[in-house]
Amino acid sequence: xxxxxxxxxxxQADNDGPYVLYDSTGAMRxxxxxxxxxxxxxxxxxxPDGYRLYVTSADGQHRFSVPLRTPRRPAWETxxxxxTLVISDPHGDLDCLVFxxxxxxxxxxxxxxxxxxNQLVVIGDVFDRGEDVxxxxxxxxKLEQEAEAAGGAMTFLLGNHEEMxxxxxxxxxxxxxxxxxxxxxxxYAALWHADSELGRWLQTRNxxxxxxxxxxxxxxxxxxxxxxxxxxxxxxxxxxxTLFLSKEERKASSPLAxxxxxxxxxxxxxxxxxxxxxxxxxxxxEETARILEQYxxxxxxxxxxxxxxxTSFFGKKxxxxxxxxxxxxxxxxxxxILLQGDKLYWIYDNLPSEPYPY
Length: 358
Description:
By secondary structure, the protein is an alpha/beta fold. The chain has helices spanning 94-103, 133-149, 160-166, 175-184, 197-202, 223-226, 232-241, 247-253, 255-260, 285-294, 325-330, and strands at 2-6, 16-22, 28-33, 39-44, 52-56, 63-67, 77-78, 84-87, 119-122, 153-156, 209-211, 214-216, 299-302, 311-313, 318-320, 336-340, 343-347, 354-355. Helix content is 26%, strand content 21%.
């Protein structure tokens, strides 16, 4: 039952949302900014049967619908699929993401999963910089459900921009998002916390994931972090438990939470596996081999640090997949990695994949 509908209040030019929030009674509030810049705010006493959200990109070029479901944590360890496509850091650029996924057989023209039993891994950082943060999250949310039904997997790991925004650090957040929150009289992070649908989903995301002997983390694994000797399921659970806390609250919560979110050596921030400057406290071949052995991995994939094309380190034991997505698309440079068995391939927007050359 629809309890009320707050009609148009012009707040901004671009589409935004939908944001889905719940109150203590279970009522569902859906907030969105429509094509004409009007703020639409609906409250449902309960979710209508067959309810779907309608999602539109900021420029109106991409449109799809999403059924809601109860979020749950994916298994932290799965067998390696026949094909695993690995990308990172889409940062609100839905057009770049959709183009890449459609041209590599991951999704179809209707934004539906077409990758069968295979796996898509997105190593964090949807928040910030771009104008389509919310549509990207809804697309990944939708694809996870469709991939599971097809026997495949869509895996999204938390990145440092997720942890920043969810603790209220909006340094890189476009003004349109902050303006909407101000119009609603609330903090922007409140649109994403545990009483929101996407907040609940994000709180079930892992920060470490394995597929076969391939390990995925957003930034890297420092020696300082690995001295914690924590098991991957415990790391994921503690990251989720403290996701919505402030920096200070995380530090006070537990040594493991403090280590996970440390802005120098934590696995969402550490650059020392792919940068050799002293200020990054780099690791070298011997330390990297020991770290991978600790987690039972043969290879580690990371995002976070931008390279001109996906780049490997330590004899392909560490693969950095983060690139400048818009620039690489425009210049026909590679945008991620396709893993088939032990073979690595560069993937492109509109060119066939080719063997990784290094």
